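The instructor's notes for this session suggest beginning with a concrete chain rather than abstract definitions. Hand out the sequence below and ask the class to guess, before any prediction is shown, which regions might be ordered.
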Amino acid sequence: MYSIKTEVCGNPDYGQNPNRPPYGVRVKTIKAKTYTELLDKVREWQSDNIIGGGNWMNPTLMRDSEIVGYMSYNGKIWSDQSITPSTMQIHIRELSNV
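After discussion, reveal the predicted structure:
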């Protein structure tokens, strides 16, 4: 089971307080059986809450209570929450029951 607790802040480019989530946005834990399903749910949540890249804070991606990495706005997973030249991308490989 994959899960992610949405972490967002206000985007100062739009006059939002960077120390708080945008008005009306509630932090939510999103869960799914597969990473693909989770990513679809995250994108839907981003769209429903009008969350852009300037609001997204690279929250922790968990799989069965273990940290997998940190999700950037575009759905890629990284080894560190702050992305630097030495941060490695983590590729999620899911096995399908074919």
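Then share the key points. Residues 1 and 64 are 5 Å apart (CA to CA). The chain has a mean pLDDT of 91.
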